[in-house]
Amino acid sequence: MEKCTKASVQKLIGSVRERLGERVKAAEIFERCYADTLETTVKEMEDGTVYVITGDIPAMWLRDSAAQLHPYLAMAGECGEIRRIITGLVKRQMKYIGIDPYANAFNEEPNGRCWSEDETKENPWVWERKFEVDSLCYPVWLAWQLWKSCGCTVQFDEEFKKGVEIILKVFKTEQRHEQDSEYRFIRRDAYFKDTLSREGKGALTRPGTGMIWSGFRPSDDACTYGYLIPSNMFAAVIMGYIQEISEKIWNDEAVRKEAEILEKEIRDGIEHFGITEKPGYGRVYAYETDGYGQFCLMDDANVPSLLSMKYIGYTGKDREVEENTRRLILSEENQYFYSGRSAAGIGSAHTPAGYIWHIALAMQGLTGSTLKEKLEVLDLMVRNDGGTGFMHEGFFKDDPCKYTREWFSWANALFCELVLDCCGLGVQMEDEQERGDSICF
Fold this sequence. Notes:
Pfam families: Glyco_hydro_125. This protein is mainly α. The chain folds into two domains: 142 residues, no CATH class; 295 residues, Glycosyltransferase (Alpha/alpha barrel). The chain contains 16 helices and 15 strands. The protein has a three-stranded antiparallel β-sheet with strand order 3-4-5. A hairpin with a 5-residue loop joins strand 1 and strand 2. Helix 3 runs antiparallel to helix 5, helix 7 packs parallel to helix 11 and helix 15 runs antiparallel to helix 16.
């Protein structure tokens, strides 16, 4: 880290320590996690871009990298180095989208390394080519948040605009996956969640719903039904961001209009096809649907999730549906909600049964309605660090010393976001900055 960046980090850590007061361990974990991402996962490249590994996997995920640097937006207004790092990441993300918009993870250079030898379109830059709608949302989300948090617009260059045009094209193609998409993905001799059915074409979906087909979830597991509702929610939100960028930065009415139409189609599809009735809960959002009437009523720890609706900025037509959905997914009606001696929370099909994810706990806190609820989740996460001083992918509900992925930067980042939120030091968008909210305890 540059000297100015270290000073800004230490200043923020000092404010956190002061506001957390007697929560000394929470402050210590925050300090360790907040410094770790910049020191161990971020690499500045000769071309001015920034490469960010996930932690223990030497590849860059579009999703994870955006989430990993998101907590540093809290410092972006006062630290030019942080702005440069974030804009460098956005530039590299858009470069990768230009190389292959269907890939979810990339190499530092075109060295041909990969997670597995899959049957799909090959490229030496690509580490893994699982098409996930959220992967194309996160770079736009991060770039827009950087603009709104500190006024920075240098990220919206010509390559970013080309990337946005590619995103729009892919989303429109995958609205008609059955008819128009050439994307295929097969991983032979693999667990069924690691490959797509129908010789790589994936889950069958009803055409004309307005929603976007996704091959895989944010967990990198294959979708059971092709319309992944949380990822479509995220896509609808970033269509709004693209409209604003097109109007205020690029003055491009054609791109703005294209995004406006897509947003309406996606939102209409979610509200019409993505809601079903659950006895005891009323009308709820499904996690996935095929558009023909089949649904997955569950939630997964990875973000976007149904739990993260408020976090990603999605608001539906009926607030009661959102509330019903939250009650459902934070109960044992959700097959991936686990309750044990150490904790209760949401896990994932990506990890063993009974393993709760720190990411999901952090999201539960970040979307909580009261400070008390947020602090309860924060304390729960601190108690379940497995004695490591870091967050993990998943930990066993009865014993936090049993965990997966000792080094998982996304989980560390979301813990930091929750701490900053509890302390009143989180990212504030331009329409929030006059409120002066500050929570001391």
